[in-house]
Amino acid sequence: MCAIVGVINSEGAAKTAYYGLFAMQHRGQEASGISSSFNHHIKTIKATGLVTEVFSPASFEILKGNIAIGHNRYGTAGADSLKDAQPVAGNYALGEISIVHNGNLINKDEIRRKLVSEGAIFQSGMDTENILHLIARSKQEHLKDRIVEALNQCVGAYSLLILSRSKMFAVRDRYGVRPLSIGRLKDGGYIVASETCAFDLVEAEFVRDVKPGEMVIFEEGKDEFSSLEILKAAEARICAFEYIYFARPDSVVEGKNVYEVRKKLGAALARKCKELKADFVVPVPDSGVPAALGFAQESKLPFEMAIVRNHYIGRTFIEPTQEVRNLKVKLKLNPIGAALHGKSVVVVDDSIVRGTTSKKIVELLRHAGAAHVHMCIASPELKYPERYGIDTPSVRELIAANMSTDEICKFIGADSLTFLSVPELVEALGGERKYSLVSFDGDYFIKD
Ligand code: AMP
């Protein structure tokens, strides 16, 4: 998962992009970067680390101009973070270009093998670089047509922003798996971002979402943007995991506020757990808070913040090795003994991936004196690796792919364990449209 942002026709575009990236830090903490175009030259700054660590006031002396794109990278084990930091910039026949990408091209290896056999040299392991090569090799006269030609060879889930010297192109794959929204800045410029929480920070107004299969073209000095259907739009399938975990609760994804959806997921869990006897509901902060609140409101049980989160630590899942992950859960979460002693508690979290977090939490709660720990998860069992940009682990590591619910309950040491079913998830999401549910149902629908 990653965050992308683009700003055009706005003074200090790179600074606005920076704020956008700051608002979307939760989507990736491994590396960050911004490209901006000024005087027909594109400059890029990127490095590993958080947004505030990568950029300093001096960065914006370099990143001048009214157009900029930016990216936060979400880490995957083993990848070379610096080499794989975005934007990916280059020079080709039509000049300078820079690309940021959220998603995953499933035919990336095939494309890369072909390009390499034809003599291409790659600088990184990223599928985004494939797109750059395909654009550079296209014989089309205009960049727009080169992008269309390149993307018609790519299969996968992606939201993209492409910067040329004077234009910015925003594209979503034909299923619209990853989000991408357009906002209007107060000075008349535009901002395009993975999540609408980026708009709130820079006081931009939401205009609309980029549609599946659509290319939106913004041009320097032009007040209106244009739109082309470049990929045959399929039935839209936004990723359900955006609502469950990834997006910030204050974002609106495809017309639905994430906070409201999470509360509904929690309420659905509460209806499922009517028989549970507990003194109160405890969220796993921060990811489980809205669902726990929904659970408490539906069940009429009190809501207690009996686990405290240390905010100065990144998301534990993102750490590549199991040892570091184990320690980080403890570094991040600490239960309040005085509130928990002798109590029966319902603990609500958004998901179980490997089981590391839940196991540790149950252990910490019992150590703090909790009498009973009922773990309630506001999503179904994650049984299939996501291949559309989330980078969930292999089947071997996904606990629900290898154990039954009872076995997981035993493994994490809880008194009971409840997941939502896929139909319950879909109903809470609204049921009126299709979602990407691959992690739960194994329906890898992107084939063509
Ligand atoms: P685990 O400890 O491996 O079971 O991971 C579960 C925790 O990681 C949950 O508390 C989630 O909030 C979080 N999480 C779930 N899915 C992801 C993901 N794809 N990337 C990062 N964190 C995740």
Key features?
single chain, 448 residues, alpha+beta, 7-stranded antiparallel β-sheet, 6-stranded antiparallel β-sheet, 17 helices, elongated, binds adenosine monophosphate
Summarize the structure.
By secondary structure, the protein is an alpha+beta fold. It is 31% helix and 26% strand.
Helix fraction bin = 25-40%
- Structural shape: elongated
The N- and C-terminal alpha carbons lie at a distance of: 22 Å
Multimeric status of the protein:
single chain
What's the total count of β strands?
23
Total of DSSP H or I helical runs spanning 4+ residues? 17
Secondary structure class reads alpha+beta
Strand content: 25-35%
CA-based gyration radius: 22 Å
Tell me about the largest β-sheet.
7 strands, antiparallel
- Uncertain segments: none
Bound molecules: adenosine monophosphate
Biggest β-sheet: strands ordered side by side in the sheet: 3-2-4-1-10-9-11
Query: Average pLDDT, to the nearest integer?
Result: 94
Which helices and strands, and how do they pair?
Layout: E1 3-8, H1 13-23, E2 31-38, E3 41-48, H2 51-54, H3 59-62, E4 67-73, E5 88-92, E6 95-105, H4 108-117, H5 127-137, H6 143-151, E7 156-163, E8 167-172, E9 181-184, E10 190-193, H7 197-201, E11 205-209, E12 214-219, E13 226-229, E14 238-239, H8 240-246, E15 252-253, E16 256-257, H9 258-272, E17 280-283, H10 289-299, E18 307-309, H11 322-332, E19 333-335, H12 337-340, E20 344-349, H13 356-367, E21 372-377, H14 399-402, H15 405-412, E22 416-419, H16 422-429, E23 435-436, H17 438-441
Parallel strand pairs: 14-23, 17-20, 20-21, 21-22
Antiparallel strand pairs: 1-4, 1-10, 2-3, 2-4, 5-6, 6-7, 7-8, 8-12, 9-10, 9-11, 12-13, 15-16, 18-19
Helix pairs in contact: 4-5, 5-6, 9-10, 9-16, 11-13
The structure holds adenosine monophosphate.
